[in-house]
Amino acid sequence: xxxxxxxxxxxxxxxxxxCHDDAFAILLAAHHPRLKLLGVSTVHGNAxxxxxxxxxxxxxxxxxxxxxxxxxxxxxxxxxEAVHAPNIHGxxxxxxxSLLPEASVPPVKDGNAxxxxxxxxxxQPASRPWLVATGALTNIALLFATFPEAAxxxxxxxxxxxxxxxxxxxxxxxxxxGEGQRIGNHTPWAEFNIYCDPEAAQSVFSNPVLAPKxxxxxxxxxxxxxxTKAVQENLLYGSSDARGxxxxxxxKVFHDLLVxxxxxxxxxxxxxxxxxxxxxLAVAVVLFDIGAEELAFDDRDGERFNVEIVTDGKHSxxxxxRGQVGxxxxxxxxxxxxxIPHGLDVGRFWDVIEECLQRVDxxxxxxx
Length: 368
Fold this sequence. Notes:
Blueprint: E1 13-19, H1 23-31, E2 35-42, H2 49-62, E3 70-72, H3 86-89, H4 113-122, E4 130-133, H5 138-146, H6 149-153, E5 156-160, E6 175-176, E7 180-181, H7 192-196, H8 198-205, E8 214-217, H9 219-222, H10 229-237, H11 249-269, H12 280-289, E9 297-298, E10 304-309, H13 319-322, E11 328-333, E12 343-344, H14 346-367
Parallel strand pairs: 1-2, 1-4, 2-3, 4-5, 5-8
Antiparallel strand pairs: 6-7, 9-12, 10-11
């Protein structure tokens, strides 16, 4: 990944989204006019693969993007048992709303998610497609291990995951009662996506072809983007004119999800200003890179880092067994390594989300 690509500005940038049912990431990837969502693959994480896949299908239907193919990927990490986060996302992985429709189209059953990802990416011109990962990195690691030519072919890889700490940003990372301040959101040291499959994450970050194409969006950045009550209300109604008419169903869905996360983040992490919005930032940084949005990310004029993931330790509730497994370690690099932004234009980011919701409202109004 070099200088921002302003060539082909009017041609939508193709991307593939690998996720564990990330609603706002799907919204942005499916409805930004400068992006072309090729497909979605799901992975274990917030909930079981069955739940994350069903949720992804429901979200695609809710936002009028049921034409996008979606595939069930890996149900467990490369060499560990799967872990889930019902205390944050609920048992289904997407609790908090009763308004999500059932998927109108089932997941693709006659194809392999990794092969579908490979074919979709390599079916685009070289150095054009992006891969965005907002869940555990199992599918991503399998893709590049099985098809190393994909690493050469893509324009970029954007990952939501990891937590740096040590004042990387001024954002509060939260605290858990009885544990005090912490770096991670699943253990005191580890962010959940990386913790789920640390071996997969390490294989991705240690790939010398991928490193200069990779952007990491850690908790340190996502916790600067809080869905405050004002943000929640703005997303529910969109404009002052809409308040008298009532909110659309799709806006109620996204509002319900934010309210649910607001309660869990306040209860679990003591962050009461509003829940951080993690996953769509990994999509939004693609817009910055292709020059399609005045949505600035601060990478300190090209600052790059070596990234290493701690793989020693078990998935366990016991500190002595778990250690710091899943912790994201970084150090500065003079060479072509991973980009980790320190900040972004938060106000403009929320504007972009609102614009996507407006497109969905118009689309669904036409269908009805």
